[in-house]
Amino acid sequence: MAADKWSDQIRACGLFFISIVVLMVIPLVYHCFVFLTALPLWGPNPASCITLLICFHVLFILMLVSYWQVIFTDAGGVPYELDEAWISELNLAHRFGLEAEVSEKVSDKDENSPLTVPSAERKLDGRQRYCRKCRKFKPDRAHHCKYCGRCVLKMDHHCPWVNNCIGYCNYKYFILFCSYATITSFYVACTIFIGFITTLIEHRPIQFTVVEFEYFVVFCLMMAVTVVLTGFTGFHYMLLLKNMSTIEHVEKRDPTKKDQVNPFDLGREKNWRQVGENLFALFRNRPS
Hints:
The protein is mainly alpha-helical. It has 8 helices and 6 strands, in the order ααααββββββαααα. It has a two-stranded antiparallel ribbon with strand order 1-2. Strands 3-4 form a two-stranded antiparallel ribbon. It is elongated.
């Protein structure tokens, strides 16, 4: 009961974060850049105005589309479920401590059983990993998300900022969203900073009005987002090139697993293609 309550709180928190981004941050940044920065240049310098608006809207649209995709694309659930007979048998086996006998029986009779599928990740006793909450066998890299209440394929983490798990089917969009958000925030921060420097060079008076305050808030916000997301996005590109999830990276900190070779590393080029044959194609919703 406590776990369910905590999961509900996390999901509510995710909706709150999305509301902040969609209803507050994005409109504030859009208003500051378009109406306070770019459009006032239309009179003295139309070319600069058009260039700023085109570059900003291209990045802005790419960011919003990738954000939409990572929120509404299912991360990927474990595709098979055991029938009731197997569930019943496993319950009895667990009750009487006969899991090994059940595993051996399946190996003898059913070559397609999830218990006999070649796997790089197994329990310490050699048995296939099994989720007792979902009542499913877990393939390699699948983990149970307590916030979503299910097992997720190639789970990376649960992200409250998108109120969704990041996994096999939407990791590509997560990478794209982080990339475009980083570039967009950097572009906005640089543009505002250049405008401030230009004001100082031309010795124009700086008045502390609501407009200047909005400039200051947006600049500080975009600088903070740029610094945080640059490191965060770089970290995930590093994981992508190593074909490693955040969970696997954290597990590598365990001294007993530190020297283990990553069995999923296919080389940087193949690792890149595994996330998406064309990583920057926003509307191909399945990795290769």
